[in-house]
Write a structure and sequence with these properties.
The protein is of the alpha/beta class. The chain has 13 helices and 13 strands. Helix 5 links the parallel strand 8 and strand 9.
């Protein structure tokens, strides 16, 4: 982290005990820890309409846009004299709770908590203003027990949390194989075991699970323990793309500080451009930030295996968000949601146009 862009003053770890399930659709499933990392920055440039902007993201490779944008000072540079304050979360519900409690203004988050937060508030608390990543989710299995898709039947497969993004995807995939599983209990032709990503590698090593449908870097951690990739979820989607990380903002902050939101989006677009142009440097940058947040970097085998499966994109891939909501409805975890108005992509398209990049679509789900 460049010394001129920020100096870490305080770092604390606070448990945020939350219910496992919020309404019908639960979390992104990365645990329930929140880590606050407040920084004072040597402010350079003109201050925008807010003195500060409070940004939330996960210490996860699918959030590498935020990790690298923060680590390299790209986000702060676009904000000028407006100070960036960061909070790192390990759970979708805790980040939505923070947004609702006015503890953060903008967040990087998965599709399921985005849908859940929007529908539970009847469309009043957030907007999706951009995309950040696609892919990075795999079905990894014990090769001694599972050698083909057919072998998954009758086995114990972990997902991060009931109703989370990967849980919904796995339940939908199981249904498409013609197998039956009760979504709530996880019992049926396949046993679905909801297991926190932090303990999934240990569960695999102990033999208590036969595989897992999980995001990176958990999938590659399992591979480092001898598991094999049976399926990359991207293979199931058109053009092999599906949203895994959105950028959301509180509607209040978007209304009051559109210039700040636009600056964060500029930083995100520039960060993705830098990541895609400098993959090795970006990988090292993301890992350095992960070390600061967790105290330990990812091993080379893990990060090298995980990185190529994630695409860093500005497009929120809105059509795939609707599809994921439909999958949750099909599984019985969500009533048919009204997602009209969940997107406001005008600020992002303004940024993209200025950068000479093509505009992106809200798939008919934007603010009218």
């Amino acid at each position: 982290m460049p010394a001129t862009t920020r100096t870490t003053l305080r770092r604390g770890l606070a448990a945020a005990a939350l219910p496992l399930l919020i309404g019908a659709l639960a979390s992104c499933g990365y645990g329930s820890q929140a880590k606050n990392d407040e920084k004072k920055v040597a402010a350079e440039g003109e201050k925008l309409s807010s003195d500060t902007v409070r940004l939330g993201y996960f210490p996860n490779l699918t959030h590498a846009t935020a990790l690298v944008g923060d680590q390299e000072g790209i986000l702060q540079k676009e904000l000028g004299g407006t100070q960036l304050k960061v909070s790192a979360f390990n759970a979708g519900p805790s980040e939505i709770e923070a947004l609702n409690a006015d503890s953060i203004d903008i967040g990087f988050i998965g599709p399921s908590p985005s849908i859940n937060g929007y529908t539970k508030s009847k469309g009043t608390n957030l907007r999706i203003v951009g995309g950040a990543a696609s892919g990075g989710v795999k079905l990894v299995v014990n090769p001694d027990k599972i050698k083909s898709v057919a072998d998954v039947k009758g086995k114990r497969i972990a997902t991060p949390q009931l109703g989370n993004t990967q849980d919904v995807a796995f339940l939908n995939w199981v249904s498409e194989q013609g197998w039956n599983v009760d979504a709530q209990s996880g019992k049926g032709d396949v046993s679905v075991l909801r297991t926190d990503n932090k303990v999934t590698p240990d569960a695999y090593k102990s033999g208590s699970i036969d595989g897992a449908w999980v995001p990176e870097p958990t999938a590659s951690k399992l591979v480092s323990e001898g598991a094999k990739v049976l399926l990359d979820e991207s293979e199931l989607w058109p053009d092999k793309k599906f949203v895994i990380t959105n950028i959301i903002v509180s509607q209040k902050f978007l209304k009051e500080h559109p210039d700040v939101v636009e600056a964060v989006l500029r930083g995100s677009v520039k960060t993705n451009e830098w990541i895609n142009a400098n993959p090795e440097r970006a990988k090292a940058s993301a890992n350095a930030r992960l070390k600061e947040l967790s105290g330990k970097p990812l091993g080379a085998k893990v990060i090298d295996g995980a990185w190529p499966s994630i695409q860093f994109v500005d497009d929120p891939l809105a059509a795939t968000l609707q599809a994921q909501a439909d999958h949750a409805v099909k599984a019985g975890l969500l009533k048919q949601p009204d997602l009209n108005g969940i997107y406001d992509l005008k600020p992002l398209n303004k940024v993209l146009k200025a950068a000479g990049k093509p505009e992106v679509s809200d798939a008919g789900l934007g603010v009218k």
